[in-house]
Automatic annotation (TrEMBL), chain A:
SMART domains: POL3Bc (SM00480). One of its GO terms (cellular component) is DNA polymerase III complex. Forms a ring-shaped head-to-tail homodimer around DNA. The keyword Nucleotidyltransferase applies. The lineage of its organism: Bacteria, Bacillati, Bacillota, Bacilli, Lactobacillales. This is Beta sliding clamp. The gene is dnaN.
TrEMBL record, chain B:
It comes from Secundilactobacillus oryzae JCM 18671. Signal peptide: none annotated. It comes from the Bacteria. This is Regulator of replication initiation timing. It holds the Pfam family YabA. The lineage of its organism: Bacteria, Bacillati, Bacillota, Bacilli, Lactobacillales. InterPro entries: YabA (IPR010377). Keywords: Coiled coil, Cytoplasm, DNA replication, DNA replication inhibitor, Metal-binding, Zinc.
Amino acid sequence: MKFSIRRSVFIKELNNVQRAISSKTTIPILTGLKLVASDEGLTLTGSNADISIETVISASDEDNGLAIASTGAIVLPARFFSEIIKRLPEDTFELNVTEGFQTEITSGSAAFNVNGLDANNYPHLPEIDTTDAIKLDGAVFKELISQTVIAVSNQESRPILTGVHFELDADQFLAVATDSHRLSQRKVNLPTGSSTKHNVIIPGKSLIELSRMIGDEYDQVEMRLSENQALFILGETSFYTRLLEGTYPDTSRLIPSEAETTVEFEAPALLASIERASLLSHESRNNVIKLIIKPTEQTVTIFGNSPDVGKVEEDLKPNAVTGSELEISFNPDYMKDALHSFGQSTIKISFTSALRPFTLVPTEDQENFIQLITPVRTF
Amino acid sequence: MNKKELYDSFIALTKATQANLEQLQLLQSEISQVIEQNAELEIENEHLRDLLNQSKGSAKEPQLSKSRQNLEKLYEEGFHVCKEWYGKRREDDEACAFCMEVIYREG
């Protein structure tokens, strides 16, 4: 195996593949990067058993400056290899597997010899039958991930809640995540529907890595689902992730259908107020802030009290207040996460009672995006 | 201190420790009895209050049914009552949306 390539192209792809490679793995060969040179191009593979990323650098694209002298495969220690490549002196480098798995990397006058591993021992990537490909808009999908992944649980004691639940029915795409304290749900209408129904749970961590890769670069993401794996295709790159096994709890019944009190706010203004009030609540043991809503006077007041430090009170500026009077307490951190996901929009908060969860929706589009937060009892 | 005294004081100490232990065990059983009795009385008290309210025919707001109240009580004591995690301890007394749905759902 012998090839030369433009360094900048290689580093870019290497950075993507390296997201999947972890130095802490129980399978030693997975700390390595797999390189396969074929007549079509160079394939880079990285995996940590949960996520696998594979990307192809095409030999026919002149910009890549890829010249394959002889084909073959090798696994190289990812951490050293990437550090070496990033520090090479010239714009291009040459890689040559000599005797056994000895690998020679040369660029200008610098020459490295690295011990590689047999690529035949590298685990195979999952096989996904590719009949039903779902096309997603890159920007929308990235937004969907960022809006739902905030509500994913980080407690390994309830593994099923560490994932985002995806439900696909024809052109309806629904994503839900909850850690049982709050919930986030986003619906998207797909331009082209799926022929079969899908119901999968994708680990939140995988989705975070995936959304980092989508960047601004890929405007199309293709999703393929199988029994226990999901595959996302971004241009020349394939992203595989394991799915979580089990049944996701029914979340549709958690969302209240009626409201006793509703309030409308500019999301950024409310966020700023919540952040101010949470300065003190973070000091107190139970981390709670209180809202007092008085529709008759059109006022909403926020209270934070931390016996050791002091207290805070702020009159908010709601756009509208309707319904009955209410006093409700909640964890400000959940509110902050939720408000961040609304960006600059105007939001409507609907309360049923001081004991029941309340919901936040953008006033523009009340159907497709909803955040739910459970209150805290304070008596 | 000669050897005999040393041994004697060991024996004395052992006896004293044993006596302490016995006393501790006695107190422990006493206190658990008191706690049990307290719980029983609390329940009794609640029943009596319920009866009292009924006989007064007090016009309270529509309340949760008896079984829902039991669930609510369990929830407040720090246990999940939802289908997903029934009987498990709620970590740090964090609210659970699934439990709330079970307790306060309509119909």
